[in-house]
Specification:
The structure holds two protein chains of two kinds. Chain A is an alpha+beta fold. In chain A, about 55% of the residues lie in helices and about 20% in strands. Chain A contains 13 helices and ten strands. In chain A, strands 2-3-8-5-7-6 form a six-stranded mixed β-barrel. The longest helix of chain A has about 45 residues, at about 250-295. Chain B is globular and about 50 Å long. The chains are: A alpha+beta, B alpha/beta. The interface of A and B includes residues 309, 386 and 389 of A. Bound molecules: adenosine-5'-triphosphate and magnesium ion.
């Protein structure tokens, strides 16, 4: 018998009792659907992480101070002296205050205030939309000036240029000197777009922010990264009298670490989904065995008019393959749909569909149909015609 | 066919199994040659013999009725002839080919091409319509779809079932279902038609119609073996074989074999 004949025959039987078929394929639908979705989430997250860190230069090192209090306090002037070393190009220490109340006219909203220096924009590779960024003199004279993230500017001023306007942050008046272009999330996950950037010392004094917590450091070249890290490590170890109060990471490391964590999680979730596929296969086998015994008489009739063992075997095998393959296809469609919908349902969740993995998941579902269909099909094909005919 | 005529054609002796009989100038070998067929089932320690050394030959073109009480082994014999069941011992030669050591595949092929089975319970596939049921043997012999459909429709037409092709068995009367089953049995133009109480599930009028059909098919050259309980039906056959307790107890010829042994095709 021809392949098309077998598939047509199997499709008819399978669609003849839709509810039963649907319930039988549910395991496979869920299995394939979750593999596709989970991989899309994993890949999307990895890609987003990579993109985030790409926005920092390849030579950027992030110094995070973990402890609080006096023991881990950094002095701004002392820190900036390291710029004189050949391996270090520029340094931008930061202090941040999340949830600052920003007010303009009658409107107010909660935003993050970042206190930093004039190097910050270059290191984070952020573009100006209008006005100017912080200058050395702004820092020196502790001016109450602010550079707005794109979202902040849009919230209060729409598309108008706010440069020269005055803004109230936690009760203190700041003059707007510039607006940044939209950027997306930065390295530590906070978005520059939703921030107000002010001179470091201004932020520390006005908002009573204590220690410098995150410092961005640009090495002179790729080759200088190791040396720069070593210098900073020695300095911080000496200063804190401990190696545990700080953490130095550069872009490659961060991407690798985050990606590895995501990949591990994804592969664990995918294994669970595969188990569901196998369980789905067992469900198919169970129903196929029931089908074979229900249709013993049919098998007898078919054999009495000339069906060979092979014909019966293929008939039932194809039914099983069609059930699992159709389930795989439905799972694939649902998984893709869910992957595409997820970023809208859950803002901040990036997804990226892997064509290769999706295809594998579908092929695996077909394989499940073959593996779990072969036993029932073989059982059906072995029935002796007379025994099958007598059965009711 | 008048009874007087039938009686006048006295029962001809059955040729010994394996013998080749000349008829006119031609050498004719029996279509079916059963020799010392034993069929037994084991029930616990005792062995139950259903067929006890049955030998039977059937010539091409003959119409044999097998009669006997319930449980005498008629269906068992028929299933053996139809290659649905294998005997415990004995030899069975179908159209000159020994069937004992045949593979499953070869047996399936013979069932497909040489034998048309008609059952008391019709045995149609309930989910398929009349055309698809008739097509089924053609599917297994690899006839292309289009030709299959044409042949099935032609078969149904010959049996007066035109216009019912798309009906499911459940939408047909018993007589109509049996006509579909006969069309299916004839679809491959087999050498041998086997009918196990084909009228058993039908009322007397439709039963008579089906019988008339069988007679017609035989007159067109089909070899038929038919099981019946009904003595009246048996009288329509050319030859009546009586079975009791797994043994042939009587074998009467009511009408001679047709002179022309070559078979006309029902569906040319
Ligand atoms: N698989 C089996 N195992 C044991 N005994 C069986 C089996 N099949 C048939 N028999 C027995 O063989 C005997 C003959 O059965 P068979 O069906 O050939 O009778 P029959 O002449 O066709 O009867 P009826 O006219 O009622 O159809 C019965 O006694 C039956 O019980
Ligand atoms: Mg019987």
């Amino acid at each position: 018998m021809k392949l098309t004949e077998l598939i047509r025959m199997a499709m008819r039987t399978v669609t003849g009792s839709p509810l039963r078929t649907f319930l039988t394929m549910l395991g496979v639908i869920i299995g394939v659907g979750s593999v596709v979705t989970l991989v899309a989430i994993g890949q999307g997250t990895t890609e987003r992480i990579a993109k985030q860190y790409e926005s920092l230069g390849a030579n950027t090192i992030v110094v995070n101070i973990l402890g609080t209090g006096r023991a881990t306090q950094l002095d701004y002037a002392e820190l900036m002296k390291f710029e004189q070393l050949p391996e270090i190009d520029t340094i931008a220490p930061t202090v941040t205050k999340a949830g600052s109340n920003v007010k303009y006219a009658t409107e107010q909203e909660s935003y993050t205030v970042i206190g930093t220096n004039d190097r910050y924009r270059a290191i984070t590779k952020t573009e100006l939309a209008s006005g100017r960024f912080l200058s050395a003199s702004d820092l020196e004279f502790r001016q109450n000036v602010a550079v707005l993230g794109s979202k902040v500017s849009e919230k209060f001023f729409g598309s108008a240029d706010p440069v020269g306007e005055e803004l109230n942050i936690d009760g203190i008046v700041f003059t707007i000197i510039g607006v940044l272009k939209e950027k997306g999330s930065n390295m530590s996950g906070t978005s520059v777009d939703g921030s107000v950037i002010v001179p470091l010392e201004t932020a520390r004094r006005q908002f009573k922010l204590g220690n410098i917590r995150t410092t961005y450091l640009e090495a002179t070249s790729k080759e200088d990264i190791a040396a720069a890290k070593q210098t900073m490590t020695q300095y911080l170890t000496y200063k804190f009298k401990s190696t545990s109060g700080f953490m130095l990471v550069n872009q490659d490391e961060l991407i690798a670490a985050r990606t590895a964590a995501t990949d591990t999680l994804t592969s664990q979730l995918v294994s669970v989904a595969c188990i569901s596929l196998v369980v789905g296969g067992i469900g198919i086998m169970n129903i196929m065995l029931v089908t074979v015994s229900e249709r013993t008489r049919e098998i007898g009739i078919r054999k009495s008019i000339g069906a060979k063992r092979r014909n019966i075997l293929l008939q039932f095998l194809f039914e099983s393959i069609v059930i699992s393959g159709l389930g795989g296809l439905i799972g694939l469609v649902l998984g893709v749909a869910l992957s595409l919908a997820l970023p809208y349902l859950q803002p901040g969740q990036a997804t990226s569909i892997s064509v290769k993995i999706s295809l594998y998941a579908f092929l695996f579902s077909v394989l499940v149909g073959i593996v779990f269909g072969i036993y029932p099909a073989n059982k059906a094909s072995r029935l002796r015609p007379i025994d099958a005919l007598r059965f009711d | 066919m008048a009874k007087a005529v039938k009686a006048a054609r006295a029962a001809a002796p059955i040729p010994a199994a394996g013998n080749r009989r000349t008829e006119g100038e031609r050498l004719v070998m029996p279509m079916i040659e059963l020799k010392n067929i034993v069929k037994s089932y084991r029930r616990g320690s005792e062995e139950l013999q259903i067929l006890k050394n049955v030998s039977l030959s059937v010539e091409q073109g003959d119409f044999v009725a097998i009669i006997g009480p319930s449980g005498s082994g008629k269906s068992t014999l028929m299933n053996t002839i139809g290659l649905l069941d294998v005997p415990t011992s004995g030899s069975y030669v179908l159209e000159g080919v020994a069937t004992e050591k045949m593979s499953d595949n070869r047996l399936a092929e013979l069932r497909n091409t040489k034998i048309g089975f008609i059952f008391q319970q019709f045995n149609l596939l309930p989910k398929l319509n009349a055309i698809e049921n008739v097509e089924l043997p053609l599917v297994y012999s690899g006839v292309p779809r289009k030709e299959r459909r044409e042949r099935a429709l032609r078969m149904l037409g010959l049996l007066g079932m035109e216009g019912r092709g798309h009906h499911k068995p459940s939408e047909l009367s018993g007589g109509q279902q049996q006509r579909v089953a006969i069309a299916r049995a004839l679809a491959m133009q087999p050498s041998l038609l086997l009918a196990d109480e084909p009228t058993g599930a039908l009322d007397s009028r439709t039963g008579a119609e089906v019988l008339e059909l069988m007679i017609q098919l035989n007159e067109q050259g089909n070899t038929i073996v038919l099981i019946t309980h009904d003595a009246h039906i048996a009288e329509s056959a050319r030859r009546v074989v009586s079975i009791r307790d797994g043994q042939i107890v009587d074998d009467k010829r009511l009408a001679p074999l047709p002179a022309e042994p070559s078979r006309q095709e029902v569906a040319g």
